[in-house]
Each structure stands twice: as C-alpha cells, then as structure tokens.
Specification:
Layout: H1 4-14, E1 19-24, H2 29-40, H3 52-58, E2 70-77, E3 93-94, H4 103-122, E4 128-131, H5 139-146, E5 150-151, E6 157-158, E7 166-173, H6 192-196, E8 202-204, E9 207-208, H7 214-220, E10 236-238, H8 242-245, H9 272-275, H10 280-286, H11 296-311, H12 317-323, H13 329-342, H14 345-357, H15 361-371
Parallel strand pairs: 3-10
Antiparallel strand pairs: 1-2, 2-7, 4-7, 5-6, 8-9
Helix pairs in contact: 1-4, 2-3, 11-13, 12-13, 13-14, 13-15, 14-15
C-alpha cells in the first residue's frame, strides 16, 4: 500500500491539482523580514490591510492553527493560451487568471475535499486550515520551501512544468508527514521581467513597488490613477501579465486542463465600449462568479477610459463624451483624460465644456489639464 504522503498526493491529483508538495510548518523568518522591510519602505502603500501585524501572522503557521506540523502546498494551472486582441478593434486586456471562474471558489472546493480526506488516510482526526490567497498565509514562501517552485525576480513562483501560470493553495495541518526538498533552481542572470515592466514596478530583483504595479492600479486602487502612470498602462483593464508573458520559463509551460478556467464571454479581450454602458445590475450579472468583480463597476470603467486613451482611436470619442455625463466623478475624470489623449476638435470641445461646467473640481481640473495635452 502506498505511503500516507503518496495517498495524499494521489487524492490531490484526483482533484485536478497539477503539483503537490509537502513542507514543514516552521516559521518563514527570512520572508517575514523581507516583507516587513517592504512595508517600512512604503512599497506596500495602498494596501491598508497589509500591516506589520498581518506580515507576522502570515509567516508563523503556529499562529494560524494549533500545533501545526506540516503544510501541503498545491498548484493549479490557469494557462489557457494567448488572448485574442486584434489591432483594429477597441479591445482591452484582462489578466489570464481572470478569464474563467473565480479561482478562490474553484481552489477552495478542491482543497476542502483534500482536507476532508486526510482523516481517512491518516486513520485518526486531523486538524486543518485551508488558504487560497485570501488569508494571513505566505503561500509563496510555503511553495518555495516545499519544492513546488522557485521565486522569480517578479516575485511569482516559477514551476518547472507549468511556469508561473499557477494558482497556489495550502493546507496547514497537525498531521506529521515526510517533507519534500526545495528546488535547486533560480532565474540566473535573466532580468526580462524587470526590463519589460512598463511602469518600472519591479524596482529590484524580488522587490515590487506595489503603487506602480498595473495589477494594483487596475484592481486594488479605488481612487484616481496617477496621471504619470496612465500612459504606461496600455490596454490593460484588469490585472497585467507582462512580466509573465516575457518570462522564458513560461514559453513551454504546460496548458491547463481545469474546465473552470476556460474563457467566459470575451474576458480575454473584451470589447471596451460596451463596458462603459454597464450599470451596477448588468455589471454584477456579467461578472458573476468572476474575479473581475473585485475591481467594482466604477473601477473597471475608469480602467476602460484609460485604455481607450492609450489606444487613441477617435471612434471612442462619442462614447467618452457620453461618459462625461456619468454620475461617477472618477469615471468622468478618466474619460476627460482619454479625450485629451485622443485629441481632435470634437474631443477638445467636450473638454472645454467640462472644464467650465462639471460639478466636481477634480473633473474640471483634469479637463483643463487635458486641454493642454
């Protein structure tokens, strides 16, 4: 009969996980110190929940369950190929992990089945706690120590078989298991991810300035996108894959077989103008069970305006002018910026009216600046 570790891994593979590794539940002291330094340097600004207290808790499994002995680390690929963006269409880009169903729900369902199976395999009660990128648990540190992958210079975990196109999950347990070894791999001299990040968010190997990252700007940021960063965001409207797209490890990464991550609607390359027409009800319906809902309707429409400004096609001018009558000042502000980027008599006339009559001072200020572009 296979050993207990092999039985656990077989059950995990049966749930569709691509990689399963096991490590101990000792504190991640190196990673804790690195994360604390990021917070103190201001590189995590904009994420008020990412506190020193949370960092400490995330790197100490003994604070998460009683008497932990082992962490089971899993990876599930979401790699469904390239997007269908066409040069002659007003389309945006969405990070690949968000093309299908919300990975939190998909991963948790599988991990619960795995966790529920541990007592039967072990022959006695087992304490467990599940994490999927939404609790105080350092999933990447666990994955590295377990030998699931290694840290890329963009801070993503790179796996030999599926590259960085993987979602990570953990089960912390009080069950003692034999552990796997870390991988003797690294990125060597490669700095493609650093060189190709358009906003310069990867400020040093393994160090990201959260405030410059396109993923943060399009998802977590609730206010105005800094004006100097807008031209650098291209046509990304939810997340960003640039540092993964250019990574040599990802060139031959295996494709995903998880049906929940297959593309929904046109989520890989959505038409932009219809997104400006969404109200709260239609937004919720369109993005039901999708991680894209995290951006909120106003945030997504703000991002769409920036993308249209960067694409620069005058076809978008009538839609952007209509947005200037929106009830949301944040969306009006970014629509004004987009009109200034596109330019032309019609756009400039709309900006003159907005700079003089919009009820919000920030929108009037943006329209006035955009007239000078």
């Amino acid at each position: 009969m296979p050993g207990i570790e092999q039985q656990i891994k077989s059950l995990a593979y049966d749930q569709g996980f691509n990689i399963i590794k096991i490590t101990n539940a000792e504190p991640f002291l190196r990673d804790e110190q690195a994360a604390l330094q990021r917070v103190r340097d201001g590189l995590m600004d904009g994420l008020p929940w990412y506190t020193e207290e949370r960092v400490h808790k995330a790197n100490h499994p003994e604070l998460l369950i009683d008497k932990p002995k082992t962490i089971i680390s899993v990876a599930l690929s979401y790699n469904y190929g390239d997007s269908a963006v066409e040069d002659d269409r007003l389309q945006g880009k969405i990070a690949k992990y968000a093309w299908g169903d919300d990975y939190h729900d998909v991963m948790k369902k599988k991990l619960r089945i795995l966790a529920d199976g541990l007592p039967k395999i072990a022959g006695h009660p087992v304490g467990t706690r599940i994490f999927v990128d939404d609790g105080p648990m350092n999933d990447r540190a666990a994955a590295e120590r377990a030998g699931l992958g290694w840290f890329g210079k963009n801070t993503n975990i790179l796996t030999p078989s599926h590259g960085s196109w993987v979602l990570l999950g953990q089960i912390i347990t009080d069950l003692a298991l034999k552990t796997d070894l870390p991988l003797a791999k690294n990125c060597g001299e490669c700095v493609r991810c650093i060189d190709d990040c358009p906003t310069g968010a990867i400020v040093a190997p393994f160090v990201i300035d959260n405030t410059k990252c396109i993923s943060y700007l399009t998802i977590e940021l609730r206010g105005s996108i800094p004006r100097n960063l807008r031209p650098l965001m291209g046509d990304w409207i939810f997340g960003c894959d640039i540092c993964q797209d250019v990574c040599p490890v990802n060139v031959k990464a295996a494709k995903s077989a998880e049906p929940s991550f297959t593309k929904r609607h046109d989520f890989d390359a959505p038409s932009l103008l219809p997104l400006l027409e969404l109200d709260d009800q239609t937004f919720r319906a369109r993005f039901h069970k999708s991680p894209i809902k995290r951006a909120k309707r106003v945030g997504l429409q703000r991002n769409v305006c920036v993308a249209l400004g960067n694409i620069g096609d005058p076809v978008a001018i009538p839609a952007l002018k209509k947005v200037l009558n929106s009830l949301e000042p944040l969306v009006r502000e970014h629509a004004a910026w987009a009109l200034g980027r596109i330019g032309g008599d019609e756009a400039l006339a709309a900006l003159r009216d907005t700079s003089a009559s919009d009820p919000d001072p920030e929108v009037r200020k943006e329209a006035a600046k955009s007239l000078l572009n």
